[in-house]
Amino acid sequence: MTQPQKKIAIVTGASRGIGAAIAQRLASDGFTVVINYSGDAAPAEALARQIEDNGGSALTAKADVSDADAVARMFDAAEAAFGGVDVLVNNAGILKAIPLAETSDAEFDRHFAINVKGTFNTLREAAKRLRDGGRIVNFSSTTLALNMPGYAIYNGTKAAVEAFTHVFAKELRGRNITVNAVAPGPVATELFFTGKSDELVAQFAKMPPLERLGQPDDIARAVAFLVGPDAGWINGQIVRANGGVA
Protein backbone atom coordinates (compact mmCIF):
# COMPACT_ATOMS: atom_id res chain seq x y z
CA MET A 1 0.00 0.00 0.00
CA THR A 2 1.45 3.38 -1.02
CA GLN A 3 1.84 6.04 1.63
CA PRO A 4 -0.10 9.31 1.10
CA GLN A 5 2.09 12.13 -0.21
CA LYS A 6 3.23 14.61 2.44
CA LYS A 7 1.88 18.11 2.04
CA ILE A 8 4.44 20.88 1.67
CA ALA A 9 4.23 24.04 3.78
CA ILE A 10 6.25 27.23 3.32
CA VAL A 11 6.52 29.22 6.56
CA THR A 12 8.07 32.67 6.17
CA GLY A 13 10.17 34.16 8.95
CA ALA A 14 10.39 30.70 10.48
CA SER A 15 13.86 30.58 12.01
CA ARG A 16 12.78 31.79 15.47
CA GLY A 17 9.86 32.88 17.63
CA ILE A 18 6.32 32.25 16.42
CA GLY A 19 7.52 31.12 12.99
CA ALA A 20 9.75 28.43 14.48
CA ALA A 21 6.89 27.18 16.66
CA ILE A 22 4.66 26.98 13.58
CA ALA A 23 7.30 25.07 11.62
CA GLN A 24 7.75 22.59 14.46
CA ARG A 25 4.01 22.08 14.89
CA LEU A 26 3.34 21.57 11.18
CA ALA A 27 6.26 19.14 10.94
CA SER A 28 4.83 17.17 13.88
CA ASP A 29 1.47 17.14 12.04
CA GLY A 30 3.12 15.48 9.06
CA PHE A 31 3.88 18.42 6.78
CA THR A 32 7.21 18.83 5.04
CA VAL A 33 8.24 22.33 6.08
CA VAL A 34 10.16 24.93 4.11
CA ILE A 35 11.79 27.17 6.72
CA ASN A 36 12.18 30.64 5.24
CA TYR A 37 14.63 33.13 6.74
CA SER A 38 16.25 36.36 5.56
CA GLY A 39 19.33 36.82 7.76
CA ASP A 40 21.49 34.42 9.75
CA ALA A 41 21.25 30.86 8.42
CA ALA A 42 22.31 29.19 11.67
CA PRO A 43 18.96 29.28 13.54
CA ALA A 44 17.10 28.03 10.45
CA GLU A 45 19.56 25.19 9.91
CA ALA A 46 19.40 24.25 13.59
CA LEU A 47 15.60 24.17 13.44
CA ALA A 48 15.67 21.98 10.32
CA ARG A 49 18.01 19.53 12.05
CA GLN A 50 15.79 19.47 15.13
CA ILE A 51 12.73 18.71 12.99
CA GLU A 52 14.56 15.93 11.14
CA ASP A 53 15.92 14.48 14.38
CA ASN A 54 12.30 14.21 15.54
CA GLY A 55 11.33 12.29 12.41
CA GLY A 56 10.07 15.21 10.34
CA SER A 57 11.18 16.67 7.04
CA ALA A 58 12.41 20.24 6.48
CA LEU A 59 14.25 22.44 4.01
CA THR A 60 15.69 25.91 4.64
CA ALA A 61 15.22 28.70 2.09
CA LYS A 62 16.82 32.13 2.35
CA ALA A 63 14.64 34.85 0.85
CA ASP A 64 13.81 38.45 1.64
CA VAL A 65 10.03 38.40 1.19
CA SER A 66 10.04 42.05 0.07
CA ASP A 67 12.03 40.91 -3.02
CA ALA A 68 9.67 39.36 -5.58
CA ASP A 69 12.48 37.52 -7.39
CA ALA A 70 13.70 35.99 -4.10
CA VAL A 71 10.17 34.83 -3.31
CA ALA A 72 9.87 33.20 -6.74
CA ARG A 73 13.18 31.40 -6.17
CA MET A 74 11.91 30.14 -2.80
CA PHE A 75 8.87 28.59 -4.48
CA ASP A 76 11.17 27.20 -7.20
CA ALA A 77 13.30 25.51 -4.53
CA ALA A 78 10.25 23.99 -2.83
CA GLU A 79 8.92 22.66 -6.13
CA ALA A 80 12.31 21.28 -7.16
CA ALA A 81 12.76 19.50 -3.84
CA PHE A 82 9.23 18.27 -3.21
CA GLY A 83 7.19 18.64 -6.39
CA GLY A 84 4.85 21.41 -5.26
CA VAL A 85 3.49 23.59 -2.47
CA ASP A 86 0.25 23.09 -0.53
CA VAL A 87 0.42 25.60 2.33
CA LEU A 88 1.73 29.14 2.72
CA VAL A 89 2.07 30.74 6.16
CA ASN A 90 2.95 34.43 5.92
CA ASN A 91 4.56 34.90 9.32
CA ALA A 92 7.49 37.17 8.36
CA GLY A 93 7.13 40.72 9.61
CA ILE A 94 8.68 43.57 11.57
CA LEU A 95 7.42 45.86 14.31
CA LYS A 96 8.83 49.06 15.75
CA ALA A 97 6.44 51.02 17.95
CA ILE A 98 6.98 54.72 17.29
CA PRO A 99 4.63 57.72 17.10
CA LEU A 100 3.50 58.49 13.56
CA ALA A 101 4.92 62.04 13.68
CA GLU A 102 8.34 60.68 14.63
CA THR A 103 8.45 57.95 11.96
CA SER A 104 11.11 58.45 9.29
CA ASP A 105 10.50 57.81 5.62
CA ALA A 106 12.95 54.91 5.84
CA GLU A 107 11.10 53.28 8.74
CA PHE A 108 7.75 53.71 6.99
CA ASP A 109 9.13 52.17 3.80
CA ARG A 110 10.74 49.28 5.70
CA HIS A 111 7.48 48.34 7.45
CA PHE A 112 5.43 48.42 4.27
CA ALA A 113 8.11 46.63 2.24
CA ILE A 114 8.24 43.62 4.56
CA ASN A 115 4.77 43.47 6.11
CA VAL A 116 2.71 44.47 3.07
CA LYS A 117 4.77 43.96 -0.08
CA GLY A 118 6.22 40.78 1.42
CA THR A 119 2.72 39.38 1.88
CA PHE A 120 1.71 40.62 -1.57
CA ASN A 121 4.72 38.92 -3.16
CA THR A 122 4.05 35.54 -1.55
CA LEU A 123 0.31 35.68 -2.25
CA ARG A 124 0.88 36.54 -5.91
CA GLU A 125 3.31 33.65 -6.23
CA ALA A 126 0.95 31.33 -4.37
CA ALA A 127 -1.83 32.15 -6.84
CA LYS A 128 0.30 30.57 -9.56
CA ARG A 129 1.99 27.85 -7.53
CA LEU A 130 -0.26 26.53 -4.76
CA ARG A 131 -1.87 23.20 -5.51
CA ASP A 132 -5.66 23.05 -5.50
CA GLY A 133 -7.01 22.30 -2.04
CA GLY A 134 -4.24 24.33 -0.43
CA ARG A 135 -4.26 26.63 2.58
CA ILE A 136 -2.96 30.17 3.11
CA VAL A 137 -2.58 31.80 6.53
CA ASN A 138 -1.56 35.45 6.72
CA PHE A 139 -0.55 37.33 9.85
CA SER A 140 -2.35 40.37 11.18
CA SER A 141 -2.17 41.62 14.77
CA THR A 142 -4.53 42.39 17.62
CA THR A 143 -2.84 45.81 17.83
CA LEU A 144 -5.10 46.74 14.91
CA ALA A 145 -8.12 46.46 17.21
CA LEU A 146 -6.52 48.22 20.19
CA ASN A 147 -5.47 51.51 18.51
CA MET A 148 -2.58 51.99 20.92
CA PRO A 149 -0.35 55.06 20.46
CA GLY A 150 2.88 54.23 18.64
CA TYR A 151 1.37 51.57 16.41
CA ALA A 152 -0.06 53.68 13.56
CA ILE A 153 2.39 52.58 10.88
CA TYR A 154 2.45 48.95 11.96
CA ASN A 155 -1.36 48.89 12.16
CA GLY A 156 -1.52 50.35 8.67
CA THR A 157 0.48 47.39 7.37
CA LYS A 158 -1.76 44.90 9.14
CA ALA A 159 -4.94 46.59 7.89
CA ALA A 160 -3.59 45.99 4.39
CA VAL A 161 -2.93 42.32 5.20
CA GLU A 162 -6.50 41.89 6.45
CA ALA A 163 -7.83 43.50 3.26
CA PHE A 164 -5.69 41.14 1.17
CA THR A 165 -7.03 38.18 3.15
CA HIS A 166 -10.71 39.00 2.62
CA VAL A 167 -10.35 39.73 -1.10
CA PHE A 168 -7.85 37.01 -2.04
CA ALA A 169 -10.10 34.35 -0.52
CA LYS A 170 -12.72 35.32 -3.13
CA GLU A 171 -10.24 35.62 -5.98
CA LEU A 172 -9.23 31.96 -5.56
CA ARG A 173 -12.79 30.76 -6.11
CA GLY A 174 -13.04 27.33 -7.66
CA ARG A 175 -9.70 25.98 -6.42
CA ASN A 176 -10.70 24.87 -2.91
CA ILE A 177 -7.96 27.05 -1.41
CA THR A 178 -8.77 28.82 1.86
CA VAL A 179 -7.22 32.15 2.83
CA ASN A 180 -7.38 33.24 6.46
CA ALA A 181 -5.31 35.30 8.88
CA VAL A 182 -4.27 34.96 12.49
CA ALA A 183 -4.09 38.12 14.61
CA PRO A 184 -2.05 37.38 17.75
CA GLY A 185 -2.17 39.44 20.91
CA PRO A 186 0.97 39.94 23.05
CA VAL A 187 3.16 36.84 22.66
CA ALA A 188 6.26 36.01 24.70
CA THR A 189 8.93 36.18 22.00
CA GLU A 190 12.32 37.87 21.77
CA LEU A 191 10.75 40.46 19.44
CA PHE A 192 8.06 41.29 22.02
CA PHE A 193 10.43 41.60 24.99
CA THR A 194 12.98 43.80 23.19
CA GLY A 195 12.90 47.35 24.52
CA LYS A 196 10.17 46.73 27.11
CA SER A 197 10.59 47.21 30.86
CA ASP A 198 9.49 44.48 33.27
CA GLU A 199 6.65 46.78 34.31
CA LEU A 200 5.42 47.17 30.74
CA VAL A 201 5.66 43.41 30.11
CA ALA A 202 3.57 42.81 33.25
CA GLN A 203 1.03 45.36 32.02
CA PHE A 204 0.69 43.54 28.70
CA ALA A 205 0.37 40.20 30.49
CA LYS A 206 -2.58 41.55 32.50
CA MET A 207 -4.46 42.77 29.42
CA PRO A 208 -6.13 39.46 28.45
CA PRO A 209 -8.86 38.12 30.76
CA LEU A 210 -6.71 34.98 30.91
CA GLU A 211 -4.01 37.15 32.55
CA ARG A 212 -0.92 35.89 30.77
CA LEU A 213 1.11 36.51 27.68
CA GLY A 214 0.45 34.26 24.73
CA GLN A 215 3.08 31.65 23.93
CA PRO A 216 4.37 30.83 20.44
CA ASP A 217 2.70 27.42 20.71
CA ASP A 218 -0.68 29.12 21.24
CA ILE A 219 -0.35 30.75 17.84
CA ALA A 220 1.08 27.61 16.22
CA ARG A 221 -2.01 25.69 17.34
CA ALA A 222 -4.29 28.25 15.66
CA VAL A 223 -2.29 28.01 12.43
CA ALA A 224 -2.28 24.20 12.59
CA PHE A 225 -6.07 24.26 12.84
CA LEU A 226 -6.46 26.61 9.85
CA VAL A 227 -4.22 24.51 7.59
CA GLY A 228 -5.69 21.21 8.77
CA PRO A 229 -8.71 19.22 7.58
CA ASP A 230 -11.11 20.53 10.24
CA ALA A 231 -10.93 24.13 8.95
CA GLY A 232 -12.00 23.43 5.38
CA TRP A 233 -15.15 25.56 5.75
CA ILE A 234 -13.35 28.57 7.27
CA ASN A 235 -12.34 31.05 4.58
CA GLY A 236 -11.64 34.77 4.40
CA GLN A 237 -11.61 35.12 8.20
CA ILE A 238 -9.41 36.81 10.80
CA VAL A 239 -8.81 34.62 13.86
CA ARG A 240 -7.92 36.86 16.83
CA ALA A 241 -5.74 34.56 18.93
CA ASN A 242 -5.27 36.92 21.85
CA GLY A 243 -6.73 35.47 25.04
CA GLY A 244 -9.70 37.86 24.86
CA VAL A 245 -7.83 41.19 24.72
CA ALA A 246 -10.14 42.45 21.96
Question: Please, could you describe this protein's structure?
Answer:
This protein has 9 helices and 7 strands; from the N terminus they run βαβαβαβαβααβαααβ. By secondary structure, it is an alpha/beta fold. The chain has one domain: Rossmann fold. The chain has a 7-stranded parallel β-sheet with strand order 3-2-1-4-5-6-7, sandwiched between helices. The termini are far apart.
The total beta strand count reads: 7
Q: What's the Cα radius of gyration?
A: 17 Å
Measure the end-to-end span.
49 Å
pLDDT < 50 runs, ≥5 residues: none
- What characterizes the major β-sheet? 7 strands, parallel
Supply the CATH superfamily name: NAD(P)-binding Rossmann-like Domain
Q: Indicate the percent of residues in helices.
A: 40-55%
- Number of distinct helices: 9
Helix-and-strand structural type = alpha/beta
Strand order of the largest sheet: 3-2-1-4-5-6-7
Count of all domains: 1
Strand content: 15-25%
CATH top level is Alpha Beta
The helix/strand series, from N terminus to C terminus, equals EHEHEHEHEHHEHHHE
Mean pLDDT over all positions: 96
